[in-house]
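Renewal narrative, Specific Aim 1. Our central claim is that a sequence can be written position by position from structural information alone. The example that follows is taken directly from our test logs and has not been curated for this report. It begins with the structure tokens describing the chain, in the order in which they were read.
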């Protein structure tokens, strides 16, 4: 039963992304030590929102594109009706109201609301941002950025210089990650009739991926020069950006881009940033 629930909400696909929430909750103070209960509530909130987002996305993909996925199979086999499947997708959203009320703030609510609205427009029939090439990748970056931001404002009323840096890292890292994701999903997207940003770029998609890593390196150098208090943070960003660039430098069209997703080192980089915050270096 638990396995089916995890598959329905695609927990395996986003569980690592809870790291963005972890960073946001602890960026101002070590909340997991000073207030572990509030920290737990904040993490659970992100758990609910990711469950809602990813299941709704699969539901929309099946309804609009007839994509074969776990939710689609349940509907096709008449185990679930479309309405019941949609209701199950919305249950985590309803549950997310509980943490929202427990520690309500207007700043947090704004980012929470943006996440929910974009999620609906991204997945469901109608405008469906997921099917608009450039808008799709902007939305994907926004989801992780909003999780990070709302985690900050779940416990704080202000944002620090380190928070701005980490937000920049989340944006740049997820940008590269989404480019790679679109490359290894290329054939699947073509079959579903979708047009992605990587399809528009065509034969230059691998070059685009390499450039995305170099952008983080360039950004790191600029911040290193102008913000002396962030030099250790930027040194880490530059190092990982170079490693990623060198790793994909010899890649070709037949390389394993799906495996690359687990090789980008985002967790290691995030842990290092957390240690700098925790140790106040």
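The sequence written for that structure reads:
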């Amino acid at each position: 039963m638990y396995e089916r629930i995890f598959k329905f909400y695609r927990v395996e696909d986003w569980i690592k992304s809870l790291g963005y929430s972890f960073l946001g909750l602890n960026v101002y103070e070590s909340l997991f030590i000073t207030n572990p209960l509030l920290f737990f509530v904040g993490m659970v909130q992100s758990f609910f929102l990711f469950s809602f987002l990813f299941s709704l996305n699969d539901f929309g993909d099946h309804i609009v594109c007839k994509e074969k996925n776990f939710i689609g199979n349940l509907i096709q086999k008449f185990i679930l009706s479309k309405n019941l499947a949609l209701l199950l997708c919305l249950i985590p959203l309803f549950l997310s109201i509980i943490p929202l009320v427990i520690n309500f703030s207007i700043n947090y609510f704004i980012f929470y609301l943006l996440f929910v609205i974009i999620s609906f427009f991204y997945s469901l029939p109608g405008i469906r941002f997921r099917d608009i090439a450039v808008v799709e990748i902007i939305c994907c970056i926004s989801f992780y950025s909003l999780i990070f931001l709302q985690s900050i404002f779940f416990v704080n009323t202000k944002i620090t210089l380190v928070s701005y840096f980490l937000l920049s890292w989340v944006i740049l890292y997820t940008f590269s990650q989404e480019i790679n994701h679109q490359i290894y999903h290329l054939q699947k997207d073509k079959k579903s009739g979708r047009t992605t940003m990587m399809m528009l770029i065509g034969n230059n998609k691998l070059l685009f991926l390499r450039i995305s890593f170099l952008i983080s390196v360039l950004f790191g150098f600029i911040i290193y020069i102008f913000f002396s208090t962030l030099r250790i943070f930027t040194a880490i960003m530059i190092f990982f950006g170079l490693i990623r660039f060198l790793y994909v430098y010899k890649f070709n069209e037949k390389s394993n881009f799906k495996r690359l997703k687990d090789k980008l080192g985002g967790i290691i980089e995030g842990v290092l940033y957390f240690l700098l915050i925790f140790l106040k270096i």
